[in-house]
Design a protein that fits this description.
mainly alpha
């Protein structure tokens, strides 16, 4: 249960980093600044979120690190001896790892477009 909650929060945090910080950079990089401006008209809270992009990114990084530690610890715990429960345990671990790697990939993508790509444009 702890593993699932940590992965959920890391996915949530990395996705919020993507929405608040990388989305504007991606739109502008693709030459869709006008589309992004109309998107801000529909979702004005994106402006407020982008003002706190460093705090949001740091929170996402902390959550991803915590989820990584929890994943590492639970991956080394024994599964139940019962074949059915053991299989379910292994499947849950695989799903948990996938969610963690997706969260990490989203965070890296968002960080690149937020902090590195604007320096080259």
């Amino acid at each position: 249960m702890q593993d699932r909650a940590a992965n959920f929060f890391s996915l949530f945090a990395s996705t919020s980093t993507l929405i608040c910080c990388a989305l504007p950079a991606v739109f502008i990089t693709l030459g869709a600044g006008a589309s992004f401006a109309s998107l801000l008209g529909i979702f004005p809270f994106l402006i407020v979120l982008s003002q706190y992009k460093i705090a949001i990114s740091l929170f996402a990084l902390v959550m991803i690190v915590i989820a990584g530690v929890v994943n590492y610890k639970t991956a080394r715990m024994p599964c139940p001896a019962d074949p059915e429960l053991g299989r379910a345990c292994l499947q849950t671990r695989k799903k948990s790892q996938r969610v963690y790697f997706i969260s990490t990939a989203i965070f890296i993508f968002a960080s690149i477009f937020t902090y590195i790509a604007p320096n080259f444009i």
